[in-house]
Structure formats: C-alpha cells, structure tokens
Amino acid sequence: MNLFDLTGKVAIITGSSRGIGKAIAERMAEHGAKVVISSRKLEPCEAVAADLNARHGPGTAIAVPANIASKEDLQHLVDQTRKVFGQVDICVCNAASNPYYGPLAGISDDQFRKILDNNIISNHWLIGMVAPEMRERKDGAIIIVSSIGGLRGNAIIGAYNISKAADFQLARNLAHEFGPDNVRVNCIAPGLIKTDFARALWENPETLKRATTAVPLRRIGEPDELAGAAVYLASKAGSFMTGQALVVDGGATI
After folding, report:
1. Which fold would CATH assign to domain 10-248?
2. Closest CA to 181 of 136, 237, 242
3. What does the pLDDT read at residue 211?
4. How many whole angstroms separate alpha carbon 88 and alpha carbon 11?
5. Rounded to 5°, angle at Cα 77 from 239 and 68
6. Are 195 and 18 in contact (CB under 8 A)?
7. What percent of the chain has pLDDT over 90?
8. What is the dihedral of CA 227, 228, 231, 236, to 10 degrees?
C-alpha cells in the first residue's frame, strides 16, 4: 500500500483558488483524492477545478465558492460537497485574512475582530460542520494552515500572529476531543511563502533580504513546498500524528 494514497477520500480545501490552498488541492488530487475548490469568487475556483478535471479525469474536482466570514456559506460548502461526493474525509482550513500591518496600538477593533473571526472562529465553524460524520465513521483528518508567526512575536503583524497561535491551541484541544474517534487534527506552520497573501513581505527587495538572511536555506518557500506536508497529514503516512504543528519554514525558527 502507498502510504500517501488518498484514493476514495474527499477533501474540502478553503482558499484553494490560488497559493498554498491551490497547491494542496493539486497534490491531493494527484494522490487520488476528490477535491473541493473554494474561495470567495466562483470564477477562479472553476478555473482550478476545470484544470484538475482535465488532468486527473472528470469528477476529480468541483468548485463551491464560500466566504469564510459567513457561517451560511461554509454550511453550503459542506452541504454541496456531501451532495456531490457523499461525504467529507479531509478538511483543510487554509483561508485566512490579515487586513492590518503595524503595531497593535494602531489596530482598530473592527480589524482585530476580522482577523480573529476569519482566522479562528471560521475554522471552528467549518470543523464543527465536518467533524460529526468523521467521528461517526471513526476516520478523518483535519488540517489547519497556521503560521510560524504563531510561534514568535512581531511588531508589524502581531494581531495575525495572535490568531495563528490560537489555531495551534484549537488543534490541540480538538485532537483531545476527536482522538478517541480516530479523527486527527493538526496544523501546518509555514514560514514566508511566495503567495499573493504574503506579497507585502516579499515583494520589496530590502524586506525580502532581511527575511532570508538568517534563514538556513537563504530563501522563501514556494506554495508547492507546503503541499506535501498536507498530503502526509491527510494520509496513512500521518495516521499517528495529531495535535501537532508541522513547521515548514526553511529553518527560520531554529
């Protein structure tokens, strides 16, 4: 048996029309999973789904747009997944937001709430929607894409880092709750990755130089370099891992 085989599994991946989420969807499909592509806008989701269906066969992927700030949208996402594919085996909470860069003293209440709502509460909502069926089947994998920002302080993205630290604890708590039913909950903690989401941190050459000088690999990561970690956590290969944060950062935190 291939330890990384996902044949017959159904995966919901939020924020999967681009960046890390898209890379995870592509690699999970490559390993046999049916994947649900989701982000706020339908057209980019449909483009990714169409490409996966062309590469891996019709019925590999569907597009279901959802705004993670809307509980109703997330429930629709889960309902449509069940309608088309029958069940949910893997849930990847990848979508997040960060509308503010600067010291915590300058953040508005609305900006702070948006970060906490989108990066923590929305994950709690979605996991709560898919976990019951996983627990009933005694099988399931939940993956939260957190950040190494949740492991250390930062004077510019402090609110974001607070939310990502909370995601680590969310995974630990849910690992305790779901573990007796063989449902695993883990985090991936990326370092700086070349995505549109992190563009403000890598597009400026000076900022990029500061961000990579002390990193052992002397570079930032690519979205696809996170995808293997997600496949591992979702597959038989990661079947004894739960409540953990898998750091993928080029050595930045060592």
Report:
1. Rossmann fold (3.40.50)
2. 136
3. 78
4. 6
5. 90
6. yes
7. 88
8. -170
Per-residue model confidence (pLDDT) at position 45: 98
Q: How far apart are CA 47 and CA 25, in angstroms?
A: 13
Tell me the pLDDT band of 201, cut-offs 50, 70 and 90: low
Domain boundaries, the chain: 10-248
Q: How do residues 51-85 score in pLDDT, each as one tens digit?
A: 999 999 999 999 999 999 999 999 999 999 999 99
How far is CA 191 from its chain centroid? 13
In our burial notation (b when 16+ CB lie closer than 10 A, e otherwise), range 159-185 reads bbbbbbbbbbebbbebbeebeeeebbb
- Torsion angle in degrees (nearest 10) through CA of 222, 223, 229, 230: 180
- Model pLDDT for residues 237-247, shown as the tens digit of each residue: 999 999 999 99
Which residues fall within 8 angstroms of residue 40, CB to CB, at 6 or more apart?
65, 66, 67
Catalytic residue positions, numbered:
160
In which residue are the tokens 């709560």 written?
128
Buried b or exposed e, range 206-238, using 16+ CB within 10 angstroms: eebeebbeebeeeebbebebbbebbbbbbbeeb
